[in-house]
Amino acid sequence: MKETKILGIEKNAFFTGLTSFFTDTSTKMIYSVMPLFLLSIGASKTTISLIEGIAESTASLLKAISGYWSDKIGKNKPFMIIGYGVTALVTPLYVLAGVPVQILFLRFFERIGKGLRAAPRDSLISASIKENEAGKSFGFQKAMDNSGAIIGPLIAFLLLSLFPLNYTNIFLFATIPAIFGVLTIVIFIKEAKAEKKGSSKNISLKQLPRKFYFFLIIIFVFTLGNSADALLLVKTTETGINKSHIPFMYMIFNTVSVVLAIPIGKLSDRIGREKMIILGFFVYSIVYYFFGKYNNITVFIFLFMLYGFYSALTDGSQKAMISDIVSKDLKGTGYGIYHAVLGITLLPASLIAGLLYDNVNSNAPFYFGSVMALLATFLMTVFAVINKKNLT
Predict the structure, then answer these.
(1) Pairwise CA distance, residues 391 & 213, whole Å
(2) Which residue range is the domain that position 22 belongs to?
(3) What is the reported pLDDT for 390?
């Protein structure tokens, strides 16, 4: 599919990135203050972790299903419109929540939206670009995603500074960019797949290569120690920092990720995804170890910067890796299974982290995450060696 490029990026990939920018501006406005809001209405650390874990995991199966059906019918755009639309509809409803269980239900439905859109979105990007541009294109998508994750917390920080502990303004304001995200899909994004007739094409998981499943095992191991970022924000509050500055800390992490995402994506196109992912897992291990070891805001600022480096190294590279491994007609299915593994694993990861935080100490979940990341680093190194021998 040949499309006009915008700033060197294929048109579909550019506007998909713009959609992610608007939507993440909205969701990260909310996410950056959600731990504080939950604590203010009586939630424990375990409850906060479980809300994130349950919301992600129970909706994660939709990621596999939506990816499969987008391959089946040859269309991605309808799944994206519905998925991003659900997020836009749920966002203003947070103002009605007064107890943690209500947040759980809202987060669950919002994650359904992500479950519907994530795999078809990645499949659309992959189908719209040249093979040697996967790293750059997914790097751009991640950069736009994280640009929204900079603007969102910044707006939340400003609103909290002007109206301390007033979360209603944030929830209402977040609805505006969410709507813009949906409109961007409807107006500017074109379908990239050739339409298939009904269910005429049989799609089997056996068609996916063995190295794809090996890669998923590595992702599972890593994610088991990668609990919700909410715990990083909760740990930061224990340094005595002004609570209105918490969104600013989240903004630091995303700023670094934005600056580095595209250059690292281009580098992965040249030297290989494996090297980027191995380094990213190792950096994550270091970050989590020092989050466990220290309780100092100066150290944490540096760690959030390093955490952004990890994000830039891994997020785009992992999606580009799948684009390399999986054949064109199975990309939706491949991305769906990948996102499902991430979502399903987050429930036990969040439960483990929350229980360690509440019942052992605030350092334990970060040491656990560091160890799991080291194990994933080793497994990814093995994967890289095997991949050189053309395992299929």
Answers:
(1) 12
(2) 9-388
(3) 64
CA distances from 5 to 1, 130, 143 (A): 12, 12, 17
Is the confidence at residue 199, as pLDDT, over 50? no
Token readout for 282 is 């190792």
pTM across the whole model: 0.76
Average pLDDT on 302-317 reads 93
The whole-angstrom separation of Cα 45 and Cα 39 is 8
- The tally of domains found in the chain comes to 1
| Sequential DSSP letters for 235-281 | HHHTTT--GGGHHHHHHHHHHHHHHHHHHHHHHHHHH-HHHHHHHHH
HSE-CB at 291 with a 13 A cutoff on CA atoms is 31
Q: What is the pLDDT of residues 343-361, one digit of tens each?
A: 788 888 888 988 898 899 8
pLDDT (tens digit, 9 = 90+) per residue, 74-96? 889 999 999 999 999 999 999 99
The CATH number of residue 374's host domain is: 1.20.1250.20
Per-residue model confidence (pLDDT) at position 201: 56
How many other C-beta atoms can be found within 10 angstroms of the C-beta atom of residue 302? 14
Rounded Cα gap, residues 74 and 147, in angstroms: 30
pLDDT classification of 62: cutoffs 50, 70, 90: confident
Could you give the CA distance from residue 107 to residue 219 in angstroms, rounded to a whole number?
Answer: 23
Q: Say if 154 falls within a structural domain.
A: yes
In the block, residue with structure tokens 């991949």: 387
**3-state class (DSSP) for residue 172:** helix
Conformation bin of residue 272: beta by default, left when phi > 0, alpha when psi is -120 to 50: left
Q: Is residue 189 part of a domain?
A: yes
By CB atoms closer than 10 A (0-12, 13-18, 19+), residue 120 is buried
pLDDT at 58: 67
Does 274 map to a domain? yes
1 has a pLDDT exceeding 80: no
Query: How far is the C-alpha of 100 from the C-alpha of 225, rounded, in Å?
Result: 24
Asked if the model's pLDDT at residue 195 lies above 70, the reply is: no
Q: How much of the chain is helix, strand and coil, in % rounded to 5? A: 80, 0, 15
Q: CA 168: distance to chain centroid? A: 25
Nearest to 38 by CA among 195, 227, 231: 231
377: amino acid identity, one letter: T
